[in-house]
Amino acid sequence: MYIVIVGAGKVGAYLARDLQNGGHEICIIESDLNKIRPAIDISGLEDSAIVRGDGSESSVMAEAGVKRADIFITTTGHDEDNLASCQLAKNIFGVKRTISLINDPENEIVFNMLGVDVAVRRTKLLLDQIESILDSRTDARFFSLNGDYEVVEMHIPQTAAIVGGTISGILLPHETTIICIIGSDGKRKSIEPETRIEIHDAITALTRSDQAEALLEFLISEG
Amino acid sequence: MNILITGCGRIGAQIASKLMESPSDHEIRIIDSDPQNFLLLPQKLRLNDVFTFVGDGTSEKDLIAAGINKADVFIAVAVRDNRNALSAQKAKYIFGVPKVVCRVGDPVKQSMYNTLGLNALSPTLFTATQILEVVSL
User: Fold this and answer.
1) Phi, psi of B45 (to 5 degrees)
2) Strands A202-208, A177-182: parallel, antiparallel or unpaired by DSSP?
3) Which residues of B touch A91 (CB under 8 A)?
4) What distances in angstroms separate CA A126 from CA A69, A131, B50, one per listed residue?
5) For an interface test with A, which of B82, B89, B102 has the most A Cβ atoms less than 10 Å from its Cβ?
6) What ipTM score was computed for the predicted complex, to two decimals?
7) Range with the lowest mean pLDDT among A64-78, A183-197, B43-57?
8) Do A122 and A101 touch, CB atoms closer than 8 A?
9) What's the pTM value of the predicted model, to 2 decimals?
């Protein structure tokens, strides 16, 4: 896929590196010339894959080939610039998917209303990470989705009461679905009522944000 | 009418002064993050702290404090296009202000925001057109 990223700061540069390693064609737009060298060093992009200019200016976006982009991602520290870029990408260049970093959590609603498909809150990411570090009993990770949902991913500890039981015996909280279970052999288990939960199984589940704690308690509870 | 203006540059200050002079009884308030910019206003307005409000015109908290919930008209005329567009879109879609006008220099953005339902005006296009008219005389 062709992915255009606005902003060659740390987020943009590491994102570019990972996406390029994943086999995608990447272009970064950056107006601060001082950021370009470090971004090339981090991302390993060719100099020609960096367009110098204002990523919320339609002429610069045209130069970066935004018209043929499959995904458009804005990562600057200014929400108003991120929003304007995404709106241009969507409305003028017809990009199907736009993703933006949000610096001020207040802007999440307006971003979702105005044509940004996925709005990623910087503070929320940090909080999620801190939350999982703080809960020392598990290695659980939380990913917030739009609306009131979260994906929880964790390994079943040795001491958990549900070890040895089957999926049919699990009483999941309201609006919670198990998405997948990976066994300790690294193979995916099928989600059937009779599938057994074993030590170190990696469980990924979708749940309501207000149920995430309850789900976690249930999965690690020592009974 | 209750009118809220963000950006006290030359355009914002000019609009505010003209509205104050007009015979109809408008309630006007102008927001700028830099109080220094209020020096562009006539003295009697500048010293009136009901009239000026120091704050960020893209911040919902500041817009509420400045009284956006009572506004009939919202005019975003700060220097930067993207900030104007964000303020104006919040005014329209979050606070439901009936009439929203927004200054956008880039003609491409101007036409996009008009399509998206804002009243976007471009001084760039206006000035360029005027200059071309003068030259062709």
Assistant:
1) -85, -40
2) antiparallel
3) 112, 115-116
4) 29, 8, 40
5) B82
6) 0.89
7) B43-57
8) yes
9) 0.75
